[in-house]
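During the first year of the project, the team set up a workflow for recording each protein of interest as an amino acid sequence followed immediately by a discrete structure-token representation. This format lets reviewers and collaborators read both layers of information side by side without switching files. As required by the reporting guidelines, we include two representative entries from the current panel. The first entry is reproduced here exactly as it appears in our internal archive.
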Amino acid sequence: MPSDSPITWEALAAIVAALVAVGSGGWALLGALKKEFENTRRDSTAGRQRLYERMDAVLKEVRDSFIHRDVYHADMRRLDEALDERDRQINDLSGRINNGCPVGSASQGKS
């Protein structure tokens, strides 16, 4: 090999070896990062799925345990109407009793 060449075969081999080492190290680092990102994404997806399942369970429990506001108001409205009807019937009956019950007038007349 001529001595006036700027680079020797040994230096070139060392540079190539260093480039290969850096490249393989970078490749390994890239693979490890990719694997870590995939694991994180999988864990995140699994965690999100567990959260959604829990939220669905809680919503179902609330739906099964409590009544909707509009159903409650409709039930209360029917109850008020039934109570009003009962009060009307009691008033009608008491009016008929006070105005013409033969038992009441007979006992009042004998006194």
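The second entry, processed by the same pipeline in the following quarter, appears below.
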Amino acid sequence: METKPIGKLAILLGKDGREIKRPSQVDAIISWNHKDGVAYAFGKDGKLIAELHNARIEYIENRNIRISGIELIDIEGNVYLAQMWHYVM
């Protein structure tokens, strides 16, 4: 299923937890549910490309959204890393 991307997503922190100086942007659609606190980013092919737990909206301003949370980095579900997204519509 091909979905139509409505914006660009940049993941702002690397796997080491440090700021990425020049983050790449990918076509994406984001979804966030305040009840479970999870944000999802889907690529233009409809596949999940990123997921944030304990996600919260930092700001929404003039077609820009900043979301922060934690990203699962191990398969057992025991290790999380702080993460931040910037989304431009």
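For the second entry, the following points were noted during internal review. The mean pLDDT is 87. The first strand starts at residue 7 and ends at 11. Both points are flagged for discussion at the upcoming steering committee meeting.
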